[in-house]
Specification:
Keywords: Disulfide bond, Signal. The protein is of the alpha+beta class and 220 residues long. The chain has two domains: 74 residues; 130 residues, Mannose-Binding Protein A, subunit A (Mannose-Binding Protein A, Chain A, Roll), CATH 3.10.100. The protein is built from four helices and eight strands. The protein has a four-stranded antiparallel β-sheet with strand order 1-2-8-3, sandwiched between helices. A hairpin with a 6-residue loop joins strand 4 and strand 5. The chain is globular.
Amino acid sequence: MRGCLLLPLLLLGTVSALYLEKDAPHLGGPETKADLSQDLEGSGGQEGVLALSGEVLESEAQEAEGAHDEELDSELDPDDLDKDVQCPKEEETVRLQGSSECESCRYTMVVTPRTFNGAQTVCRTCYRGNLASIHSFSVNTLLHRLAITTNQAQVWIGGFIRGWCLWKNYCWIDGSSWNFTNWACWQPAFGYGQCIALCTRGGRWRRAQCNRQMPFICSH
């Protein structure tokens, strides 16, 4: 009697085992491989999203930089000069005769700080000239010696930048040709601002924001 009961139980266990083996997916089976492929694709998709996000952020950063440069560029308008200007007093200026290259040239440094546009206004209105342009090392040295009489780190000269990124144009405000440079290290590529100042230490040039107030040198 006991043997009769054991036989059906053994048969039932064998059938159940075969059923489970048939339905359960093996690790090497196609179902598992498909699931793994989906997981990998999902992971790759996340990497793609991250990469795309990085590209978008980089693009937005470049656009922001361009917009910032355009904003700085809009600050500079050589024709938009102050209508009401008080000319500097004699004690606010230091005068210098021209160099051997231009004996008729006269330079006046105004020690009272002004913005780039404000400085150009004074040069044009009070001295019938412009912010100084520099076309040789000897003139740069001459103006550097004039600039170091101030207690400021930089003075305005007449250089400015039009455009941004790969479309930059370097200009002198008096319209003369851009045929000489004396940039400081890493300038102008890593500079900041659309106007150009002469450093009193070393006589090199640096970019500066046009709305900064500095002493300046007029040529007339």
